[in-house]
């Protein structure tokens, strides 16, 4: 079995400015992508079926040239057609207003396709859901921030956690845009999960540095040993879930897994670069002021 | 024994919970518990008490609002609700009294309301009609009242039961005002067909009045007039597809009078409504939701019997239809009653999962769950390389899932894909916290006394507690907001965190202490 040695970083070699440069640059790029997306499309990410409305079918197609059969079967062109690897079925998505969901289903049946699943959401229903979901994310983040401030009762360590959690959510959101993953209820749940998940290692670090004996570098090393193991186990579980779910075509699990993997990777970076340097500044310089 | 229990009560508590979970999962006594989603999966219900949601069992889910407009705080000005309904309906185009519902406040603090459930009436038209009819009100909002919604839920349940769709449920969706209908194992089209119409059945008489013009005597028979409604009959040797009914004695007398007056009963009548409605003997029209589905005459014997009054004592009657399916629909509608308002099926969300796909998803999610746990175990073993630390860790995390499954079985909460994703996330956080405990306890050299262990364990627990609080806080909006099936994900993540912090992680501490100190 491979031994996992948590890497030891010699933080003394780097200045705070050097440490935060990369993560902040990445955060800036992520924000740029999200804002750019918002300006161009009117939403921070590509909205999925649940928020825009539309119809999605999962069908089995027998015979040759399934894609051509699908193109010919429907009286309107589908927005997208994706093949699911494991069982060879197809996920066909139609935009809102193209055709009624019942008619789409009838056309699929008429073409001899075996309809496995049908999901349809009305367009007037979607935006309302989107507002709710967005409100939920903001509320969760605000609640988490308040809790952190109440527990640590000092500004710099608390804001360090909040900034790092903010970046943990923004980077996967930007990645979703780049990888063409839609914002759905599943991905919103994953972003919320990330808020809770990603602060664990930050809390561990802050606790180790601020509340326990030992010098800064020793405390950081100890927290890092535990924290990195934690995050890697979670990443392992989520990566397995993402890969298998994408093979099986289970989109909700795939989306939740992908976002958590990206977010936890971002968390590794943010915790041990951003949070550490802010804490170091606080311990060596901030407290003296 | 008692001494052991005293120092290891956390482990004992964990054992008790695992036992309870096992009981909830496998005990046949609990199997007939709450009927949350019914008997969607035979295979599952024989093996465990777990219930599967539509994702994993197959079936149809429809979430849709009821169409209607409600005027609040209406001044009835002494009129009865019936009078108000007639007045308001009279002011609206193409609107019947069945499209207007006036409700008198029954309790203190409630207000009188008037609802219009005709989808074609706009808010402005409704406002004008209220003004013209002379009823004052506060404001008009879209949607229907709680009383109407409750009635609709009852009627929908009746329709689903009458149609023989076992295990279907109808409820209000997380107090959003929408109706959520779930029918396991059933095709989407069939369910939509069953529920999308209001199913208001009535019988009209179409006849020539004294001045020779054709006119319709409306609603001579409505649902309330029927004493009993038999199941639809094929009627092969005679009348064709039909629904046999009997009519209440008092309604029968009224019907007799109208039938005689309109010329339907005496001598019977032959109806040619479908061929030439300007030249026919009197007809009975079977009208569903305002549309004539069949027109039929009356055979001479029955006509005689009605005219003479003999029929009133027996008062059986058949409603003929053009085909058997129609007869079945009419029978269901008559038995379950009419929906007080129409469901806006197209304006909501629907999803359908075929039963085979549900089966597949079940297998897939089991594989995903098992492999995720194995990968976590792999990382933990690779990191600690000491089975003494790693093995209890994995077993503890696993017991967390068992307890959660027990909860799900006990509550009858249907498992779906989102819930399973939640379980996997719970294993992730669970193991994280166990790693914190293990590292903290083993840090700074040997643990040789209970006191050292306890102080380190407490320190680790502080971090775990704060982390758990943030996770619960982050997931709570999802558990509270009406955002579809993600509620399950949130509820089980929160429950998992609670089970972890209160039961399994303290127990892991005890196990670790036993292994570290008593050597």
Automatic annotation (TrEMBL), chain A:
Bilayer topology reads: Multi-pass membrane protein
GO BP term (any one):
protein targeting
Q: Which residues span the membrane? A: 20-40, 132-152, 159-179, 185-205, 226-250, 256-283
Q: What is its main location?
A: membrane
The chain positions of domain Protein export membrane protein SecD/SecF C-terminal read: 112-283
Cell location: Cell membrane
Q: List the Pfam families hit by this protein, alphabetically.
A: Sec_GG, SecD_SecF_C
Instruction: Cite the entry's keywords alphabetically.
Output: Cell membrane, Membrane, Protein transport, Translocation, Transmembrane, Transmembrane helix, Transport
Any single Gene Ontology cellular-component annotation:
plasma membrane
The UniProt function text for this chain reads: Involved in protein export.
Of which family is this protein a member?
Belongs to the SecD/SecF family. SecF subfamily.
What NCBIfam families does UniProt report for this protein, alphabetically?
Answer: PRK08578.1-3, SecF_Halo
Subunit and partners? Part of the protein translocation apparatus. Forms a complex with SecD.
Q: What is the protein name stated in its UniProt record?
A: Protein-export membrane protein SecF
- The protein's organism comes out as Halohasta litorea
From TrEMBL, chain B:
Q: Which residues form the Protein export membrane protein SecD/SecF C-terminal domain?
A: 350-502
Q: How does it sit in the membrane?
A: Multi-pass membrane protein
Look up the record and report any one GO term of the cellular component aspect. Answer: plasma membrane
Please provide the Gene Ontology terms (biological process) for this protein. intracellular protein transmembrane transport; protein targeting
Q: Which UniProt keywords apply?
A: Cell membrane, Membrane, Protein transport, Translocation, Transmembrane, Transmembrane helix, Transport
Q: Which InterPro entries match?
A: SecD/SecF_arch_bac, SecD_arc, SecD_SecF_C
Is Transmembrane helix one of the keywords? yes
Which locations, inside or outside the cell, does it occupy?
A: Cell membrane
Q: List, alphabetically, the Pfam families matched.
A: SecD_SecF_C (PF02355)
Which residues are listed as membrane-spanning?
364-382, 389-411, 417-439, 460-483, 489-508
Main role?
Involved in protein export.
Describe the subunit structure: Part of the protein translocation apparatus. Forms a complex with SecF.
Assigned protein family: Belongs to the SecD/SecF family. SecD subfamily.
What HAMAP family is this protein classified in? SecD_A
Checking PANTHER family in the record gives: PROTEIN TRANSLOCASE SUBUNIT SECD (PTHR30081:SF1), PROTEIN-EXPORT MEMBRANE PROTEIN SEC (PTHR30081)
Protein name from the UniProt record: Protein-export membrane protein SecD
The taxonomy runs: Archaea, Methanobacteriati, Methanobacteriota, Stenosarchaea group, Halobacteria
